[in-house]
Amino acid sequence: MTASEIRALFAVASRPEVVSLAGGMPYLAALPLDVVGGSLERLVAERGLVALQYGSGQGDPGLREQILDVMALQKVHASPDDIIVTTGSQQALDLVTRVFVDPGDVVLAEAPSYVGALGVFRSYQADVVHVPLDAEGLQPEALREQLEKLRRDGRRVKLLYVIPNHHNPAGVTLSAARRPEILEIARRYGVLVLEDDPYGLLGFDGDPLPAIQSLDSDGVIYLGSFSKTFAPGYRVGWAVAPHAVRERLVLASEAAILCPSSFSQLAVSSYLSNHDWKHQVGVFRELYQERRDAMLDALDDLLPSASWNVPQGGFYVWVRLPAGLDAKAMLPRAVTQRVAYVPGTAFYADGQGRDHIRLSYCFPTPERIREGIRRLAGVLDAELEIQSTFGPGMGPTPAFGMGRVTGPSDSPSPDLT
Ligand SMILES: Cc1ncc(COP(=O)(O)O)c(C=O)c1O
């Protein structure tokens, strides 16, 4: 494991004068904090001796029942016994990798992919091989070709890691038509699908698509999380896994943490039973949609030289910079101009991504988003001017020790997730 080069920069970027379009932090001010506080008080008064005690390694049985209701919206088939509660879905990523991946094994991931998962894969010395995605998500034909090539090369492929809904960072959703196709290819090559779905309920239009897991509960491990639909501070996520796998995950989790936090689990459980959580998810959806619109309007008005996708949910817009600009080299200059983003390089295991940036609209208000894009437009203009005068690659020397040309992705910090 290595420290992220851009970590140091984010210490600066978290200063209040900087508009951060970098982090994936949910907008918790939209939660009814009085309701949450009241329920915590009741929890300690009424069930304190359970909530403050060690619990089951697999997770609280009551919460596992409730997780079934949450997943029913995406047609995930499971029984409470198939679920293991984890310390955020991040721990589930770690457990699955620990159980399945030996050094040198291949893990397939979309190009780009979630920085935190790439960090986990790397920490177990997996060889991450990217498969391209487009506006409809992971490309089946490219997946087939890559698997065929890896088979010819005699490589052992352990996992296909997919973020099907409102992708981090690409913002796209895997189309309904492609889901069975991807599954069929993975099945044919004997590869387990790791479906990571923290944003599935945060779509702006219509009902969520059925999870890939709903099509084959044996070939898929499904990961869910309360971080984006409730609050990440509780650190409660979960995995749904086929029976034999689930036993291993429980053992691995017990070895790592003994059990997930009883207090957090019961707090989430009491929130789900005493509060209209579906309504609250709707409140978040509306809020994020308004912010997405604010970001797209600002991009239209102020950054016409860049291009981007239109996310139908989630937190992120994936922006392609004008030709010749380098997202990573430009970041210190952007932070100096009091705006932060995540350079595309964070989302690849192989040094790609210098031509992209990820912008998050989840946390800043619409006014701050516009101000952030205005500042970013100023930075881009300055870069383009330098480029037109001196040619590409002639920006000021990068600060903060930046400028590594290739190399695997950075381990995540909460600013990056
Ligand atoms: C795609 C994806 N997976 C997993 C996580 C980790 O979430 P948590 O551990 O908070 O459940 C994140 C957080 O941003 C994410 O974007």
Q: Determine the number of helices (DSSP H or I, runs of at least 4 residues).
A: 12
- Bound chemical compounds: pyridoxal-5'-phosphate
Cα-to-Cα separation, first versus last residue: 17 Å
The third-level CATH topology of the largest domain is Aspartate Aminotransferase, domain 2
Rounded radius of gyration (Å): 21 Å
Instruction: Tell me the fraction of residues in β-strands, as a range.
Output: 5-15%
Tell me the strand order in the biggest sheet: 2-9-8-7-6-3-4-5
Question: Residue ranges: pLDDT <50 for 5 or more in a row?
Answer: 395-411
The CATH class of the largest domain turns out to be Alpha Beta
CATH superfamily of the largest domain: Type I PLP-dependent aspartate aminotransferase-like (Major domain)
Write down how many β-strands occur, each being a DSSP E stretch of 2 or more residues: 14
Q: Indicate the structural class.
A: alpha/beta
Choose one word for the global shape: globular
Helix content: 40-55%
H-E string: HEHHEHEHEEHEHEEEHHHEEHEEEH
Task: Tell me the major beta sheet.
Answer: 8 strands, mixed
Report the CATH architecture of the largest domain: 3-Layer(aba) Sandwich
What does this molecule look like?
The chain is α/β, with parallel strands linked by helices and 417 residues long. The protein has two domains: 137 residues, Aspartate Aminotransferase, domain 1; 241 residues, Type I PLP-dependent aspartate aminotransferase-like (Major domain) (Aspartate Aminotransferase, domain 2). The chain is built from twelve helices and 14 strands. The protein has an eight-stranded mixed beta sheet, sandwiched between helices. Strands 10-11-14-13 form a four-stranded antiparallel beta sheet. Strands 1-12 form a two-stranded parallel sheet. Helix 2 packs across helix 9, helix 4 packs across helix 8 and helix 10 packs parallel to helix 12. The relative contact order is 0.19. About 4% of the residues have low confidence. The site of pyridoxal-5'-phosphate has 15 residues, from helix 4. Pyridoxal-5'-phosphate (PLP) binds next to helix 4.
